[in-house]
Every structure is written in C-alpha cells, then in structure tokens.
Amino acid sequence: MLKTVKFITANFDKYDPHFIDQYEEIGGFNALKRAVKMDGEEIASEIALCGVKGRGGAAYDMGRKWSQAKAVDSPKKVVICNADEGEPCTFKDRSIITKDPFRLIEGLIIAGYAINAQNGYIYMREEYTHLRPLLLNAIEQAKQKGYLGKNILGIKGFNYDIHLYSGAGAYVCGEGTALIESIEGKAGRPRMKPPFIKQSGLYKLPTLVNNVESLTIVPAILMDKEKKYLKYGTEGSIGTKLISVGGNVKKPGVYEIPFGITLRDIIYGLAGGIVEDRKISLIQLGGASGKITSSDFLDTKYTYDDLKTANLTVGSGAVLVIDERTSVIDFLRYTQNFFSHESCGQCTPCREGNRHIRMLLERVKRKQHTYKDLDSLTKFADIMCSASLCGLGETAQNALICAMKLFPKEFEVIEGRTF
Predict the structure, then answer these.
(1) Contact of 360 with 315, CB cutoff 8 Å
(2) Which terminus has fewer CB within 10 Å in the chain: N or C?
(3) Chain mean position to CA 395
(4) Is residue 242 within 8 Å of 8, Cβ to Cβ?
(5) CA angle, corner 396, sides to 284 and 53, nearest 5?
(6) Is the separation of the CB atoms in 125 and 84 below 8 Å?
(7) What's the rounded Cα separation, in Å, for the pair 385 and 390?
(8) Cα 170 from Cα 167, distance rounded (Å)
(9) Rounded distance, CA 82 to CA 66, Å?
(10) Rounded distance, CA 359 to CA 365, Å?
(11) What are phi and psi of 119, to 5 degrees?
(12) Residues 157, 151: contact at Cβ < 8 Å?
C-alpha cells in the first residue's frame, strides 16, 4: 500500500499562493464552474458517495451535514470555515492555508452555493496571524475575478462574500458555538444546545461549519472524474487523510495518507522512527483531547473502525509520539496544565474537574497518592465526560482514562506510607 498520496495536497508547490492566475492555470475554480451547474443536493450526494467525514475531529458524515444545511428553510444562511486549529500537535490546516489558499476559498464558495448561503466566514486562530495577509489577498483576488460578490459567474441571485475573523488564542473557540460567540464579539464560551447551529448559529442564522481540510477536499472531489479517491483507503474508511506527526520522531511533518496504513507505517516509515532510536513511552492520536496507547498497538490500521476497536480515534489527525524520556504521569501533568488553562470556566464539571485533577496528578507524581485519590481521579473524569457543556470538558480526560487502564503501574499506591 502507498504510504503517501497526493489528492488533497495535489496543488502543493504547484503554484505561487499569492497569484490567482497561477491557480487558474492548474485548473483552479473549474470545480466551482461545475458546481453551479448542479443542485446543492447533487453536490452533497457526491461528497456522501466518497464517504467523507468531517476533518475537524467529530467525524460527522459531511454529505449528510450539507444536505441537512440545505434543507433548512431560510432566506439567509451562513457558512463558517473553522481554522481555529488549536489542538496541540495539529498543524495540517496551516499547511493548506500556506500552500493552497485558493482551493480553500473555492471550497468555501461551493459550500455557500450548495446550501444557498450569502456569506462565508473564516475564523482563524490568533497564532496564525501571519497568514492573514495571504488569505485576505486570496479573497480580494477572488472578488476581482468575479468568484465572489454579486451574480457570481453570471448567475443571477448567486451573491456570496467571504469575511476573515481572528480569534484571541482561546482553545475552546474550536468548538462551533464558542467560535460563533467570538465572531459576534462576545466571550468565546459554548452555547447550550438546542437550538443547534444548523438552525440558529451565527447571528441566529442557519449555519454550516466545516474545517479547513473538509472544505479543501470538496473541489478535488468534484473534479475527480475518474473517481480516484474511491480507490484509496478501505471499504469502511474511503480515501485519504491529512495527518500531523510530531513529538519525538525524526521527521515530524504533515503527510497525506490513504486510510488503512498502520501506525507503524506512519511512525517508523513516514516519520523515520524515534529520535536516537529510543523506546516509545506512549502515542496520542487526535490532539491533546485524544486517547493514548502504547507501542503494543503499532500494527493497528489507521481507519475509523480499526482505531475504534483499539479504543482510539482519528480526531484532528494528530499523531503525537512520546519517547521514554517522558513518563506517562509527566505527560498527563503537562496535558492537564493545558486544559486547566484553556477551560473557559463556564460550566462547573470542566472548571472544577480540571482543577482538582491537576492537583491529584501532582500527588501521583510525588507518589503521595492514596486509593481514595485514584477513585477521585476516576470519578471526576467520568463526571466531566458526561456532564460538561462542550467538547473540551467531555474529552479533556481521554488521555487520563486510557492511561489508568493501559499503564496501571504508573498509578500504583505505595502502601504503609504516611504523609
């Protein structure tokens, strides 16, 4: 099986991302020209045929999501591109913005046409401020070429504009409703649901939210006349995926892989193995909120089903490799500090749960913990998973829950000691 492919990344390094003319020379905006001859349901059906799941972490069926968004009856709708790539070790969307911004813009325009929206918004994380000029330039050139504005491509009534917003560096704004609150000028805190975004999102308008990779794949699929995408991957996980490989590997970076290669292929093949050939302490998939595993699972295939069987998820596409220099407990402490800092504080389970788990992990680090402390860790983690308001609190303890099952020796209580 091929280790890397070029489908989503087919345009990388093929044109200067500052010039729309060069993008058009390699077929840019041909997908949009095809899309406007189709109905929105037809576009959604093509995406569904390819089995595309959302690439931001939730893995919701993208064709179904677009079909549901189109079905909402409203004279005004909105599309949001979530470029708030805040998961640690996740940097694939940055590569797309840097190397192929016009295809992202094209995908966002197609999304607007497909669901009958009038405005698109790109919400970019604060740390990507240096990429704002690149996207603003792409938006402006698309306007000059008639791909944005009124009566796009001469189609009466197809009016669509794109707006760029930046966050203030809050991890929680990667969650859809918190992102929307931020765009509206409020504190980036999640909303209660229902109503759901597809019915009442930005400015209380029906809203479709997709991430950068999800939108960028759309033009490629619409121009895939030979259905090459369907030949990649496996029966249950069709196609390709962008992954960000980081940590203690020799060749960290962004790779486009066909679903079905193993974690061993990724870590020891694409990423060149572990620095100085050290042993693996743990592997985390899907970002800081992702689950962790040990080197015993290196032969697990990178598919939705195989990872689920191994109690892992694709998540944001991150693959973080930690070598033996960092203990499991130290890794959990670092991760917990991150979540304690990034919790918005709105709901009690997340606000208090993160704080108490951080203190308990410090006791475990010092080998001063008791069986009662371990019971508290489990109890607080379970409460957070089931009662938190948004995905941050629900998934913040994924790594801890996995570690307590996979690495029980790390949590052993020293009997007979008093403190």
Answers:
(1) no
(2) C
(3) 14
(4) yes
(5) 65
(6) yes
(7) 9
(8) 7
(9) 15
(10) 10
(11) -140, 140
(12) yes
> pLDDT (tens digit, 0 to 9) for every residue of the chain, 419 residues total?
568 999 999 999 999 999 999 999 999 999 999 999 999 999 999 999 999 998 887 789 999 999 999 999 999 999 999 999 988 999 999 999 999 999 999 999 999 999 999 999 999 999 999 999 999 999 999 999 999 999 999 999 999 999 999 999 999 999 999 999 999 999 999 999 999 999 999 999 999 999 999 999 999 999 999 999 999 999 999 999 999 999 999 999 999 999 999 999 999 999 999 999 999 999 999 999 999 999 999 999 999 999 999 999 999 999 999 999 999 999 999 999 999 999 999 999 999 999 999 999 999 999 999 999 999 999 999 999 999 999 999 999 999 999 999 999 999 998 755 44
The CA distance from 249 to 372, in Å, is: 37
Q: Are 104 and 216 in contact (CB under 8 A)?
A: yes
pTM over 0.85: yes
Task: Report CA-CA distances (Å) from 224 to 31, 47, 148, 230.
Answer: 9, 11, 24, 10
Please identify which residue in the block is written with the tokens 């998820």. Answer: 313
DSSP letter at 156?
T
For the chain, how long is the longest CA-to-CA vector? 81
In contact, 217 and 8? CB cutoff 8 Å: yes
Amino acid (1-letter code) at residue 417: R
Question: Which burial class, exposed, middle or buried, applies to 412 when counting CB atoms under 10 A from its CB (0-12, 13-18, 19+)?
Answer: exposed
> How far apart are alpha carbons 142 and 134 in whole angstroms?
12
**Residue at token pair 């991890």:** 171
Phi-psi map region of 19: left, alpha, beta (phi>0 left; psi -120 to 50 alpha): beta
Residue 34: Cβ within 10 Å count: 15
- Cα–Cα distance measured from residue 137 to residue 102, given in angstroms and rounded to the nearest whole number: 10
Domains and CATH numbers, the chain: 20-222 (3.40.50.11540), 232-323 (3.10.20.600), 328-411 (1.20.1440.230)
- Angle value at C-alpha 74, between 72 and 76, nearest 5 degrees: 120
